[in-house]
Amino acid sequence: MNPLLKANNLKKEFRHPRRVPVLEDVSLTLGKGEALAIRGASGEGKSTLLHILGTLEPPCAGRLWISGMEATSFNAARLRCLHIGFLFQSFFLLEEESALANVLAPARIAGRSVKPGSESHERGLHLLEMTGMTHRSDFPVKYLSGGEKQRIGLARALGNNPDILLADEPTGNLDDATAAAIYALMWEATIAQGKGLIVVTHDKRLSDRCDRTLFLHKGRLYPNQEF
After folding, report:
1. Fold type of domain 5-223
2. Over the stretch 204-223, which tens digit does the pLDDT of each residue have?
3. Residue 184 pLDDT more than 80?
4. Non-local CB neighbours of 126 within 8 Å, separated by 6+ positions
């Protein structure tokens, strides 16, 4: 059975204003119903790795497969749109738009109808209900709290029903109670449904809930070895 995500020998370096190696020979897989945590010190390249796995930026070398299809420069955007959802620490929401409009954004990008009654619109309403945000559906996001914004961010990430959720420090700006609620929602939306989750985190409580933890150190991934 093909893994949801497979990366072989990824390499990344930045070359301006000088050469800075970031990732060296990074390989990993993610299976259905699996949660994988990636930890490491600040500046080790965890977010860069997540961006490459999500096809937001290309590696300098190596290969990547998503849901059995190899990601290339020609199909990366389509694979990302259909198979991957992103959850960010800094939200990256459309502050002037309503909560519902933000949740429907991935469907719009995919060219799907978001008119009331459409499949995407109904899914958006369901995701707001799932995240406990129905009562904020018509609120401009700029008026919401940090915890509420992260719930909207999660609902948006799930808008196209992706196979894989990539989360970059999803609870870094949240209090303990709100973080626990976000943990539970992420698991309910991914692992409980046979989907995959990769989370970059400094939070050991979150990584301990994952099936595996990999540590990024000096450009390489190590299992069960904290630095």
Report:
1. Rossmann fold (3.40.50)
2. 888 999 999 999 999 999 99
3. yes
4. none
Specify whether the CB–CB gap between 73 and 101 falls below 8 A: no
Per-residue pLDDT reduced to its tens digit, 114-148: 999 999 999 999 999 999 999 999 999 999 999 99
How many Å separate Cα 138 from the centre of its chain?
Answer: 25
Distance of alpha carbon 60 from alpha carbon 43, whole angstroms: 18
DSSP symbols for 35-71: EEEEE--TTSSHHHHHHHHTTSS--SEEEEEETTEE-
pLDDT band, residue 99 (cuts 50/70/90) = very high
The answer to whether 156 and 94 have CB atoms below 8 angstroms apart is no
Structure tokens at 155: 């609902």
Residue 102: both structure tokens together: 């933000």
> Longest Cα pair distance anywhere in the chain, in angstroms?
53
What is each CA distance from 55 to 48, 52, 66, 131, 202, in whole angstroms? 10, 5, 10, 26, 23
DSSP H helices in the chain: 46-53, 76-83, 99-109, 119-130, 146-157, 176-189, 204-208
Please state the domain extents for the chain: 5-223
Residue 224 confidence (pLDDT) above 80? no
pLDDT at position 227: 63
* CA dihedral angle for residue 178, residue 168, residue 66, residue 44, rounded to 10 degrees: -150
| Residue with tokens 């070398």, as numbered in its chain | 61
